[in-house]
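Project standup — Tuesday

K.O.: blocked on the structure for the chain from last sprint. Re-posting the sequence here as requested.
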Amino acid sequence: MKEIGECIWKVEGEKSGPVFIVSGGVHGNEKTGAHSIRLIKKNIESGILRVKNGTFYFLLGNLRAIDLDERYTDSRVDLNRCFTSNLTDAQVKSYEGSRAQEIMNVLRIEDNPADSVVGIDIHSTNTPSQPFLVSQKIPFELHATVMPYLKTAEALLCDPNLIFEGELLTLDEYYARRGLGLCYETGHADDCSRVEIIYNEIVDLGTALGVFESDEKQTPYASNILPPVYTLRESITLTDEGFEYAPGIGEGNFVPFLKGDILGYHGTRPVVASCDGVFVFPKLKKHWKVGKSLGYLTQIL
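H.V.: unblocked you, prediction finished:
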């Protein structure tokens, strides 16, 4: 095991194979990811978890925000919007912009063959939520290979039309340039009860990919049936008019609505649902920014 960047580790197997990447702590207050990465490191160092084939990378994301136990540092720049060459001036000057550049320079995703990379970026939500997965791509063959092992996830959100940010910016989207990148939302940010469960799922997946061998028992999921799949349809964006959610909306993830329901108000103007679906990623008010999303409307495939 080599530390090839600050809190970025690489382990190479004896034989060639896939590239498997696991990251956590891209947002500093999301503890499950950071704790899972530390558990991976501990068990590799002890020899409990071994890399047999291919290349395994694992890393911690926003190191300064982890120390602060905050989503961002004082710059208020989101590391998970910095995995692009088109950074704003504020991003370029920030720690987060530099950290994203360091991660990309070390991993060099583009140097790998197509469909050779599986990357899991572990996150948590700021409002109550069931665990779920996010993929920019509509499910394809690699999803069927990977998702049965991430069995805690109760849904998959897809964003093929880039509704989320309008362009590819996140770490899981960076992984997806040469294969499959998944954002694994593991529950509420303050809930660390799933750390060992998530760790075991990562071990099961790495073993199934042929990357790991472990002294721990593998417990693969018995079914290859994917969980419900939703696509992002549209974003609610904060305007200068302000915004107020309708009762019951904005309090958690996967809140259902029907076409024609009022979801909230820009000042006095109602926001009306254009389809049946569920509301996801509601932003806490302290994270609201004019011109940025407050949450997303999704529709089941």
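K.O.: great, moving the ticket to review. DSSP finds seven helices and 17 strands in the chain. The longest helix spans residues 31-46.
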